[in-house]
Amino acid sequence: VQLQASGGGLVQAGGSLRLSCAASGRTFRNGAMGWFRQAPGKEREFVATISSSGGGTYYTDSVKGRFTISRDNAKNTVYLQMNSLKPEDTAVYYCACRDRLLSSSFVDDYDSWGQGTLVTVSS
Question: Residue 26 pLDDT > 80, yes or no?
């Protein structure tokens, strides 16, 4: 699967952004998807994941209630709606796909990665 992330940008604290990740190649609907992020000088960390059907989602604690992951299998696209953004959300955001139906929060469980999109939240 080839992944193309988009939607990043500069936003003030409290604002919103929606990230998109378009997939092509192998069958998108058979794979769980995830969003991860990496801030300067830090390791890549888990943000959110969604199962292949979209019925199961899971978030890291710091984004619960603010971020929503969703997918449209007809469009081969996964989304990350980010509301009430904070400066600590600033990072490069990556989408990833795994060849399993069930979602995962572990970086090593994912087989394909997008190129990343930068999100900058100003205070």
Answer: no
